Amino acid sequence: MPKTMELLDKALEIKRAASWCREFNLTEAALSLARKRGRLSPTLAGNFAIKLGESPEQWIAIAALEAEPDSPLLDELKAKTSRWRKR
């Protein structure tokens, strides 16, 4: 399953974190905290996807799945959605 950290890494290959923070009107601490948590918020993932020419809907969904606590229901959902997440 792709991870939102992969999306962030791709964004940081294009611009520095400070530039993205200015563009999205964020503090630099926001991206630092996202990195520490190991995931982007759905809103941030969607906006990065738009700027990078990727599907915002797909990245918003991935971010939402990452934000959920582990559970058997989440495992089942991830297994059933693995096809669209690989595109």
Describe this structure in words.
- The protein has 87 residues and is mostly helical.
- The protein is 75% helix and 0% strand.
- The protein has seven helices and no strands.
- The chain has helices at residues 4-14, 17-24, 28-37, 42-52, 56-67, 72-80, 82-85.
- Helix 1 packs across helix 4 (42-52).
- The protein is globular.
- It starts with a helix and ends with a helix.
- The model has no long low-confidence stretch (mean pLDDT 88).
Question: Could you list some keywords that capture this structure?
Answer:
globular, mainly alpha, about 75% helix, about 90 residues, single chain, 7 helices
SSE blueprint:
Layout: H1 4-14, H2 17-24, H3 28-37, H4 42-52, H5 56-67, H6 72-80, H7 82-85
Helix pairs in contact: 1-4, 4-5
Give a short overview.
By secondary structure, this protein is mainly α. Helix content is 75%, strand content 0%.
> How many beta-strand segments?
0
The dominant shape is globular
Please count the helical segments.
7
Beginning-to-end CA distance, first to last residue: 10 Å
Integer-rounded radius of gyration: 13 Å
Please give the largest β-sheet: none
